[in-house]
Specification:
41% of the residues lie in helices and 17% in strands. With 333 residues, it is of the alpha/beta class. It has a single domain, classed as Glycosidases (TIM Barrel, Alpha-Beta Barrel).
Length: 333
C-alpha cells in the first residue's frame, strides 16, 4: 500500500470509529424502546423483536406537573414499572389553570419544561413510553392557546425526535361546545409543527366533549399517519353508551387511545364503580386499546392512586395505595 493510500485508509477508519461512537452516544441518550406506529385501529411495534405485534400500552398519568412535581422522579417511574407492570407514563401539563403553561410566568414555563425533560429521561431509563400531555381544561377550546401549543410542540419535537419512547397528546379535553371541526383545524397545525422534525412519532388528538365524541372524529378524521384519538371515561359517570360510541368509531376505523380514565365519577370524586370498571377493562383489553389512569398523586380525592396520608414518592407498598390504586394495580399486573 502506498503511503497516500495508507493515510486515506486511516482517515476512513477514524471517521467510521467517530460515527460509531457518536451513534452509540445518541442511542444511549435516547430510549431503547421499540418505535411505535399506528396500523389500522391498533398501536403496534414498528421495530424490535415484537415488530408488527399490538402494543398494549398501560400506565398512569401524573396529576398537574405544577402541583405534584415530586412524583416525577426516577425511582417512582422505575418502581411503577417493576411493581405495577406499567409500560407508559403520562406527563399532564395543564395549560390554563393555576401555574399552567400559558397562565404562569416565564420562570414557571421553564420549570414545567424542565419537569417534562426530566420525565422523558426518567421514563427512557425506566423503559417506559411517555406521553407529553398539553392538558387543556378550563380553556375549553384548544384554539385559546393555539400559537403557544404550536411553539411548544415544535420545541418538543426538535428536542425528542430521536427518543422512540415519546408520544404527543396535543389537547387533553376540548369542551365548552368546541366542535370537532375546530379541534381538527387546531390539530392539523400542531401536527404539522411536530412533523417538521419528527415524521413518525405517535400523536394523540383530543375529541369534543371532554374527549368523548370519538364518533365525530370518526366521521372526518385527520390526514396523515400515526395519529390516534382520545377516549376518556370515568366509570362512575360514563357507561355502556360511551362504549357504544367507541365501538362505532372503531368500526369506522378510528384508532383510539384512552389517555385518561378512572372508575369514580367525572369530578374525580364519589365512590368507585367497580362493576362498570370491570366492563370497561374488558372492553379495553378485548380491543387492545392503550390505557392510562388518572392520577399519580396523594391529593385527597377518589381518583388519586396514593393515600393522602402517604408521603412516599416511589416504591409504594399495597398499604400506601387508595382503593382505586389497589384496584388499578390488580388490573395491570
Ligand atoms: C381534576 C383533578 C383535580 C383538579 C381538577 C381541576 O383530579 O384535583 O382540581 O382536575 O384542575 C378530567 C380532567 C382532569 C381532571 C379529572 C377529574 O382531564 O384534569 O382532574 N377529569 O375531574 N376529565 C374528566 C375527569
Amino acid at each position: 500500500m502506498s503511503k497516500r493510500k495508507g493515510l486515506l485508509w486511516s482517515a476512513c477508519l477514524a471517521l467510521v470509529l467517530l460515527l460509531g461512537f457518536t451513534g452509540s452516544g445518541i442511542t444511549s441518550r435516547a430510549a431503547k424502546l421499540p418505535r411505535l406506529k399506528v396500523s389500522g385501529t391498533k398501536l403496534v411495534y414498528a421495530s424490535g423483536s415484537k415488530k408488527g405485534k399490538t402494543a398494549q400500552l398501560k400506565g398512569v398519568s401524573t396529576h398537574g406537573l405544577s402541583w405534584f412535581p415530586e412524583y416525577v422522579n426516577q425511582k417512582a417511574f422505575s418502581s411503577m414499572k417493576k411493581d405495577w407492570k406499567i409500560n407508559t407514563v403520562r406527563l399532564a401539563m395543564y395549560t390554563a389553570e393555576y401555574n399552567g403553561y400559558c397562565t404562569g410566568d416565564s420562570a414557571n414555563r421553564k420549570a414545567l419544561e424542565k419537569l417534562v425533560d426530566n420525565g422523558v429521561r426518567y421514563a427512557a431509563k425506566a423503559g417506559l413510553y411517555v406521553i407529553i400531555d398539553w392538558h387543556i381544561l378550563s380553556d375549553g377550546s384548544p384554539e385559546t392557546y393555539q400559537s403557544q401549543a404550536v411553539a411548544f410542540f415544535r420545541k418538543m419535537a426538535k428536542k425528542y425526535k430521536n427518543n422512540t419512547n415519546v408520544i404527543y397528546e396535543i389537547c387533553n379535553e376540548p369542551n365548552g361546545g368546541t366542535s370537532w371541526n375546530t379541534v381538527r383545524g387546531y390539530a392539523a397545525k400542531v401536527i404539522s409543527a411536530i412533523r417538521t422534525y419528527d415524521k413518525n412519532a405517535v400523536i394523540v388528538v383530543g375529541t369534543p366533549t371532554w374527549s368523548q365524541d370519538v364518533d365525530a372524529a370518526a366521521r372526518n378524521p385527520l390526514k396523515g399517519k400515526n395519529i390516534m384519538y382520545s377516549l376518556h371515561f370515568y366509570a362512575g359517570t360514563h357507561g355502556q353508551w360511551l362504549r357504544d360510541k367507541a365501538q362505532a368509531a372503531l368500526q369506522e376505523g378510528l384508532p383510539l387511545f384512552v389517555t385518561e380514565f378512572a372508575i369514580c365519577d367525572a369530578s374525580g370524586n364519589g365512590s368507585l364503580n367497580k362493576t362498570e370498571g370491570k366492563k370497561w377493562m374488558s372492553f379495553l383489553k378485548k380491543n387492545k386499546i392503550p390505557y392510562v389512569a388518572w392520577s399519580l398523586s396523594n391529593k385527597a380525592e377518589t381518583a388519586s392512586l396514593i393515600k393522602s396520608s402517604c408521603r412516599r414518592t416511589s416504591d409504594w407498598s399495597a398499604s400506601d395505595l387508595t382503593a382505586w390504586g389497589k384496584w388499578l394495580v390488580a388490573q395491570m399486573k
